[in-house]
Amino acid sequence: MSPRWGHITKFMFAVLVVVLCGVVGLGIGVANWLRKDLPSPANLQTIAPPVKTLVFDRNEKLVHEFFKENRSIVPLRDIPKPLVQAILAIEDRRFYTHWGIDPIRLMRALVTDIVARRPEQGGSTITQQLARNLFLTHEKTFTRKLKEIVLAIRIEQTYTKDEILEMYFNQIYFGEGAYGVDAAAKVYFGKRVQELTFPECALLAGLPRNPRDYSPRRDPDRALRRRNLVLSQMLAAHFINRAQYEQASEAPLGVTKTRYNAQEAPYFMEMVRQYLDERYGSNQIYEGGLRIHTTIDIDIQHAAEEALEKRLTALEQRNQNKKTRAVLAAKAGGSTARERNQTEYLQGAIVSLDPSSGQIIALVGGRDFNDSNFNRAVQAARQPGSAFKPFIYTAAIDNGFSPTDIILDTPVSFNAGNGQEWSPQNYDKKFRGPVTLRSALANSVNVPAAKLLQKLGTSVVTSYAKRMGIKSRLLPDLSLALGTSEVNLLELTSAYGVFANQGVRVAPIYILSVEDKNGKVLEQSRTVAEEVLSPETALTMTSMMESVLENGTAASARALGFTAPAAGKTGTTDDYTDAWFVGYVPGAVTGVWVGFDRKQKIGPGMTGAAAALPIWVDVMLAATKGRPAQDFPVPSGVVSRLICVETGLLANPACPSTEIELFREGSEPTGYCNVHTGTAKPQQETPDFHETDTEAPADERLRL
């Protein structure tokens, strides 16, 4: 070799070394530059995508989900094989043989981009797509592509192929808010991923490339072509045979008409959300994958929501309201009311619970959560009217009075304490003269209740109400007999649960347990029970309130179809501003309130019996469906006697109206009626339900 060629060779070698060093240095520099924005190896080892929180009812039905990204984690073993094959066929056929990037596919995509003079085809492997979705943006730039490649290689070095595939199936976006295959299966087909058919698997596999354009709801024809392309790729990859391809390609898309949406019982769930947020924080709620087991029975909840809407719509029509829910919903605007969390149309609320456990079975806080998230079942403080009277009579019975004791329903005036006198009036503007305590309560007569309160003292009555569960402030004046102190529906319904539970108060609960995403129990509910009344007093009050439904203000419940043994009390406030009914059977107590957010007249004759009781009947028919009717249990120490309704003494054969009365043993009457002394008993008339609603004057009572 000549010296000249030797010099050239040395020069070329030196240049090559410099170029190689430059390339290596540039590569190291680029790698270091890219590494600044890429996750560390430690972060790669702890990939944990946000997981939604699931809420279940008492029967383990999924009823609500909290999430930022609608995602449920599913192990690869639970994902149908056809879905795995479909994804591999359309997205990354050489997934199990490449090392994070597919050079053949990458070169093909590069050529396509050069020809198109813009980023046109991705060429990304499943691992690259996972890297992009986990850590990068979706912008189509050369820099992002380099980062994606580096990340994909790192992920391949950190995880097995099956682990990568499982993360992909749980991470990738399928459109319409669905992240991961399980959420996608529910959103598009209303079923779990394990239940997908072969054609449905092919449809889902075609979505990740472009969820918007391939949406089967937005463009069914394009979605069908995309699904069939997936099927043809599966055929080419020998995942299926010709017969399977032809059969599947002829199948309809099978997408449900409406999107699956587990967002039930919104007012109840907002209570759950607020509790969880305070206890665990919002990140855990929306990303932590908690599993919440609640007390609600979603079937009874649905019945309650339907009953409220049906009955209030009927009341709006009956009262010829101009501002109905339907009319206001059809009009644009209305934002002013929503800003104040109030609506202009007629509202209502329902609470139903199990008195023995305190578990809330159903809770409806209004007609439309989207219109107003103000929870009228727990946040609205309203006057209960005569629905407060049972607390007065409870104090009386517990302090030596009996249901047969006579009290005079005659005009009376009390010193109001401000130099003026207060003269209570009955709703029907009548005075009945001597009445028994049972009759006075059954017919919601105001004057005897005021006289009884004055005898007992307001402090005694309020102490009974408090121990039974009323937490709101009760004013210590005689107008308390008419229910002038405001309470909320939940506390009032829970307090009535003491009667149903034989004197034992159980604090209301709505969450049974909370688990983390791994199934570890974070908390479990405890029943807090306390005996606040004797069983004898509780049963006596139940017996007296049974008369409310048998021949008192709520007797129309029987005409509406509710025939099981039940007890309860109506409530109506001045000028028909609020209508209540709270009642119970063994094992269930339900309260209903009806009124406007801005206090105004519901309508003429809109008593508790007219406005609230029909809703109660509908809910209780659903709550007791399939259950045999039960009588209230009678504790020892209680005896029954046939007494004359008018005198409260033991009945003679000639007494025109008699009934079985309960007494504490030793307190029962021993003398016989001295008014009706004949031997022939007059024929009794069947009560007219129109006449039993004594919380309204006769000319304003509504017929069924």
Automatic annotation (TrEMBL):
SUPFAM superfamilies per the UniProt record, alphabetical: beta-lactamase/transpeptidase-like, Lysozyme-like
Domain Glycosyl transferase family, chain residue ranges per copy: 61-234
Compositionally biased intervals (Polar residues): 676-686
Segments forming a coiled coil: 298-325
Intracellular or extracellular location(s): Membrane
Broad class of the protein's primary localization: membrane
Alphabetical UniProt keywords: Carboxypeptidase, Cell shape, Cell wall biogenesis/degradation, Coiled coil, Glycosyltransferase, Hydrolase, Membrane, Multifunctional enzyme, Peptidoglycan synthesis, Protease, Transferase, Transmembrane, Transmembrane helix
Region entry Disordered, spans: 676-704
Top-level taxon in the UniProt lineage: Bacteria
Protein EC: 2.4.99.28
Cellular component annotations (GO), alphabetically ordered: membrane; outer membrane-bounded periplasmic space
Family matches, as InterPro entries: Beta-lactam/transpept-like, Glyco_trans_51, Glycosyltr_51/Transpeptidase, Lysozyme-like_dom_sf, PBP_transglycosylase, PCN-bd_Tpept
Annotated GO MF terms: carboxypeptidase activity; penicillin binding; peptidoglycan glycosyltransferase activity
Transmembrane segments: 12-34
Domain named Penicillin-binding protein transpeptidase: residues: 348-588
Composition-biased stretches (Basic and acidic residues): 687-704
BP GO terms, sorted: cell wall organization; peptidoglycan biosynthetic process; proteolysis; regulation of cell shape
Reactions catalysed: [GlcNAc-(1->4)-Mur2Ac(oyl-L-Ala-gamma-D-Glu-L-Lys-D-Ala-D-Ala)](n)-di-trans,octa-cis-undecaprenyl diphosphate + beta-D-GlcNAc-(1->4)-Mur2Ac(oyl-L-Ala-gamma-D-Glu-L-Lys-D-Ala-D-Ala)-di-trans,octa-cis-undecaprenyl diphosphate = [GlcNAc-(1->4)-Mur2Ac(oyl-L-Ala-gamma-D-Glu-L-Lys-D-Ala-D-Ala)](n+1)-di-trans,octa-cis-undecaprenyl diphosphate + di-trans,octa-cis-undecaprenyl diphosphate + H(+)
One Pfam family here: Transgly
Name by which UniProt lists this protein: peptidoglycan glycosyltransferase
